[in-house]
Amino acid sequence: MIIAAAQTIPKNENISANLQDHIRLTRMAASYGAQLILFPELSITGYVREKAESLEFVSGDPRINELRSLSMEENIIIIAGAPIHLESGLHIGAFVLFPDQSEIIYTKQHLHDGEEIFYIPGNDDGFQIRLDNESMAMAICADITNYSHAVKAASINSSIYLASLFYTPNGISEGNKILELYAMELSMNILMSNFGGPSYELEAAGKSAFWNNEGELIAAFNGTGEGLLIVSKDVNGWDAKVINT
């Protein structure tokens, strides 16, 4: 099995340009055999919370039809972040697009301070992505700071925890410690995707990474910049490599 984390540098409010970056990086990941690609939090719009309503997406939004077609064409699951308006309200969410053209929307369950002005938290639906013999749970940014979130993922036998983040240099060390702890204590492999450049007038830390279920860091970006983390599993366990673009 091969999965990938995309470390991207979204252009604030430039949805068209960001989608082209998603397409380019997804095609690149597929060329390495990836069956799933994880993008960072709000990867389609950039982290621009005051303008969330003007940038919002909806379920079935036609603007990501090219991503839907690409998922089918390359036989890859695409997880891309956006502000998504559902019946319940406006959420920080992620479209999970499958090659059979089905899709799921995951909504961030634990908001960061200040986000509650613009968004509402999602529900703990406990959905999983199943790929080969792995079951994967989703987390978006501040979700990872709530231990109960990771415990719930482990309780439904998730073997991989997919963390889609926007972490700054000030926060990344603590975020990495949290994810390493979850890997060790809850026996989950963890794939983390972070911004590789600034958004919302904040610097990003990059350092997208993969830990195995013993808490061992298998590979990570050294810092910022754009590229892919390609993670593979065979009979000998997990391996990973960074592809800079």
CATH architecture: 4-Layer Sandwich
Average pLDDT, to the nearest integer?
A: 96
Whole-Å distance between the termini?
23 Å
Total strands: the figure is 14
Q: Mind telling me the CATH superfamily name?
A: Carbon-nitrogen hydrolase
How many structural domains does the protein architecture include? Answer: 1
Radius of gyration: 16 Å
Low-pLDDT stretches: none
**What overall form do the CA principal axes indicate?**
globular
Can you tell me the CATH topology? Nitrilase/N-carbamoyl-D-aminoacid amidohydrolase
What share of residues is helical?
A: 10-25%
Strand content: 25-35%
Q: What is the N-to-C order of secondary-structure elements (H for helix, E for strand)?
A: EHEHEHEEEEEHEHEEEEE
How many H/I helices? 5
SS class: alpha/beta
The biggest sheet amounts to:
8 strands, mixed
CATH class: Alpha Beta
Structure description:
This protein is an alpha/beta fold and 245 residues long. The chain has one domain: 4-Layer Sandwich (Nitrilase/N-carbamoyl-D-aminoacid amidohydrolase). Helix content is 22%, strand content 32%. The strands form two sheets. Strands 1, 2, 3, 4, 5, 6, 13 and 14 form an eight-stranded mixed beta sheet that branches. The protein is globular, with a radius of gyration of 16 Å. The two termini are 23 Å apart. 44% of the residues are buried. The model has no long low-confidence stretch (mean pLDDT 96).
